[in-house]
Structures are given as structure tokens and as C-alpha cells.
């Protein structure tokens, strides 16, 4: 279709009805979903960098890779680092008391079954058991995962992968993906026997789980690492975007510190392996919270190298990026736009954040896929997209979601969730089909 201005079809009056009534608490509505997620479900980056007083991932890596965890970071030993990470979970799940409010802070007791949650007293533990027993088993898994996640930061996870031997059309689940990996058991063994796995359990302050449990955790964290390139691959395949016919540009919209703080230039390489012989794939991270870092280089003006993934970034709201960069041909138009749990449901001033972006994506007829972390978020997002007359093409449980379980930190006695358990995809507006058929009729 022609590239008309985004506001030509719908007036703001149509849109107001979808704004939630809660007062706005932040300008960056497209980051609210991430923030909401972040405060409930801490990622390791949040814990390590904020609780450990580190300013950047580079600092963190130098601490991990260097010969010591120096006093610059206030951490002298690995044991202390894991201790500080665990401290963020230390409060009485029943009465919410913090250790500092106990006569003896060390009297805080941990549930021995799950090694995850804490109680100030045996009374609180007893009172809490009828609820906690429903979640204890899953919280045990979540507690293992939050420690093993450290192995992503040390580089042990993921194991090295090869160009795919099966078309993405035939890889429908993570089981299919693992089955395709050559020498999978050998690669998992190498991680299990790795130096950092040893350091982890020597310093975690918790008993080392059974090998079988640890192995499953390593696999879940592997899916957590690969879930973003898999999301893009899944979306390319869904929309029949052909990476063999020409170079492909993917925009990650609403990218925040979660996508960009820890990013390495190689993090999306799986995408190139998914399409061996591709003509070049560029992944551009765009969002107001994009963090400066090694891969935050400007989007390409010409196409990138064939057979490879080129990651770039741009710190801006998406519609501003479009107007100043895309419109001026300083970056390619996207063949696909992807958003990782954008959090429309938590967006309180939709008009200021996501709305111009959604209208732009709709009116330029761009293929779009979003992931969501709950059914609630999916339903609300579908409602918003329906109000905006976008043409939603499908939605459901996302087959390549991260298998890592994340617990709600403030209230752990809930089912831990995957951060991208659901997805939806849309393209264009509902009236596009009608218009097209009318044109055809006129011509007849
Ligand atoms: Zn208590
Ligand atoms: Zn428990």
C-alpha cells in the first residue's frame, strides 16, 4: 500500500476507549510492561547489576573474567555474590517481615524442600504450608534456574550450535530443536563439568541438586537464551518472509535494558544458523531504554554481510525512529517487527507510548509479532489491537517460549511463569481486505 500518514484513517476519539483508567506513572509506556515484569520477576541482570552495585554488564564481566571480584564492586568472593543475590529473596513469605526486623537476622529459615522461600519462624512456616505446598515443587525448579542462569553470564550456556539440518517449518517445539542438536549429551556434559558450574555450587550456599535436575535446568536456560532469535525465526516463517531471496531487516520494537544491557554481538547468531545460506539478517533494537553498549551501533544504511546476523540499536521511541531514520533512508524498512512482552496491559498512557507505533505498524502494513507473559496480557493486547482495527492473524501459546520458570518475587506462592508464554501476530488493518476487493470490483 502507499505510505500515507499514519493518522489518516482513525481519529483519536476511537482510540480513547482503550486507555486504562489508572493514572500514568511513567512516560515510557512501552517500557512499563518490562518494568512491571521486572519488579515482579527479577531477572539476573537486575539482581546482579543493581543489587550488586554494578553499573554495566562490562564491569560485571570484567569482574567475572578477571582474576578477582574486587572491592570496587563491594564483593570479595563468589560466595558473597551469591549471598547478595539470595538476599533479595529473604523475607518471610507469611508475614512479610525482613531479616533486619528479627532480633537475630540469621534466624530466617528457608523451606528445605524448595530451597527457595523464607520464614521468620516455624509458626509462620506452618501457617503458610497449606498454600505453599501447592507451589513448593515448582519453586524448587525456579530456585535452581535462578542460580544456573549465572552460567549464561559466564558464557557456559548456551552450548555451541551448528547450522540447522531441518527446516524451521519442521521444528515445531523445543524438543524438536534439541533433537536436531548433534552430540547434545556431550555438550551438556561439558557444561555440567565446567569450571563455573563447580564454582556455582561451591559458593551457592545451597545443596547441589541431583545431576538430572541440573541438566534439565541447563536445558531450560538454553531455551531462555535462544528464545529471542527463535521468536524472530518463528515470525519470519509465519509471515513467509524469505531470507534466501534477499537481505532481511527485523526491528525489535520497545527494546529495553532487558534486551540490550547484556547483549553480545553474537546473541542472535542462531537466526543465521536457522537459515543457512541467507542473504543477511539485520536485527535493530529500538526503544527509549536501549542501553549503550558494544552492539549499539547505528542501523545499517546498506545491507549487511550475507549469511550473518548484524545487531544494531537505536535509542528512541519507535515512531520517532521511523520519522527521523527510516523516512530519511538512514535505515532499511523492516520486513518484520517483533516486540518481546511489550506490556500494553500495563501501559497507562497508551497514546504517548505504544499508540503511534501501533498505528504506524498497522498503516504501513508491516508484519508484526508480539510475545506476552500471561494470558491476561494476551487478552488485553488483543482487545487493544481490535479497538485499533488491526488485522490480527493469530495468537496462542508460544511454542518457543523460555522454559525457565520465573517466580513473582513479592508473592512467590503463585505459579511461576515463562516470560513469553503467549504470542500474537497481526498485519495491517481490518479494512485493507475490504478496500482491496473494492478496487478489484471497480476495475471489473
Ligand atoms: Zn513470618
Ligand atoms: Zn518449599
Automatic annotation (TrEMBL):
InterPro entries under this entry?
Mito_gene_expr_regulator, Mss51-like_C, Znf_MYND
Keyword entries, A-Z: Metal-binding, Zinc, Zinc-finger
Record lineage = Eukaryota, Metazoa, Chordata, Craniata, Vertebrata
- Which Gene3D superfamilies does this entry report, sorted A to Z? 6.10.140.2220
Q: Give the protein's recorded name.
A: MYND-type domain-containing protein
What is the organism of origin for this protein? Eleutherodactylus coqui (Puerto Rican coqui)
Q: Pfam families per the record?
A: MSS51_C (PF20179), zf-MYND (PF01753)
Query: Could you give a GO molecular-function term held by this entry?
Result: zinc ion binding
The UniProt record lists the MYND-type domain at: 92-136
